């Protein structure tokens, strides 16, 4: 598989990835480990909340978006690391049985100053469920290596 570098990316380039099916056991496991609130860990207690049932943690939803982006695109890039996450908005709850898909777009490319190669890439994320409802959006910035030499 070809490794993509900073120079291979273009503003406006889009990748669409998924679906990723979310099940109850995964929601509860993530919730218990990282966000143990009743709407994420206890289906009976969650039924009494404003959500009317179990929902994924927002952190879990963000992690799913990242997984889709890595599996679909980022694993083919020479990513050095992330530098920030901006404007994450959780617009609708993610529920057991939802099938999520991600749309990732290159929004900004900032080359590193010489003599370093590569640069900073700002990506926007949009995560939709099986009914084409937008459940999450946001952006992240990553450093991507340049072509060797």
Describe this structure in words.
- With 149 residues, this protein is α+β, with helices and mostly antiparallel strands.
- It has a single domain, classed as Roll (Thiol Ester Dehydrase, Chain A).
- It is 23% helix and 36% strand.
- The protein has a five-stranded antiparallel beta sheet, covered by helices on one side.
- It is elongated and about 60 Å long.
- 25% of the residues are buried.
Secondary-structure map:
Blueprint: E1 14-21, H1 24-34, H2 38-41, H3 43-47, H4 58-72, E2 79-90, E3 99-111, E4 119-128, E5 134-144
Antiparallel strand pairs: 1-3, 2-5, 3-4, 4-5
Descriptors:
alpha+beta, five-stranded antiparallel β-sheet, 149 residues, Thiol Ester Dehydrase, Chain A
Radius of gyration: 17 Å
Number of strands: 5
The share of residues in helices is 10-25%
Alpha plus pi helix count: 4
* Average pLDDT number: 96
Shape: elongated
What is the structural class?
A: alpha+beta
Instruction: Kindly report the CATH topology.
Output: Thiol Ester Dehydrase, Chain A
**CATH class value:** Alpha Beta
Q: Quote the distance from N terminus to C terminus.
A: 20 Å
Structure described in brief:
By secondary structure, the chain is α+β, with helices and mostly antiparallel strands.
């Amino acid at each position: 598989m070809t490794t993509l570098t900073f120079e291979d990316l273009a503003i406006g380039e889009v990748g669409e990835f998924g679906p990723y099916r979310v099940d109850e056991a995964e929601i509860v496991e993530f919730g218990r480990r990282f966000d143990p609130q009743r709407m994420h860990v206890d289906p009976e207690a969650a039924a009494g909340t404003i959500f009317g049932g179990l929902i994924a943690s927002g952190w879990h939803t963000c992690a799913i978006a990242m997984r889709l982006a890595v599996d679909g695109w980022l694993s083919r890039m020479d990513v050095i690391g992330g530098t920030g996450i901006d404007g994450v908005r959780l617009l609708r709850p993610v529920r057991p049985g939802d099938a999520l898909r991600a749309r990732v777009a290159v929004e900004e490319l900032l080359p590193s100053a010489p003599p370093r190669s590569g640069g900073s890439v700002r990506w926007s994320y949009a995560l939709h469920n099986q009914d084409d409802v937008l459940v999450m959006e946001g952006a992240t910035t990553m450093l991507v290596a340049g072509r060797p030499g």
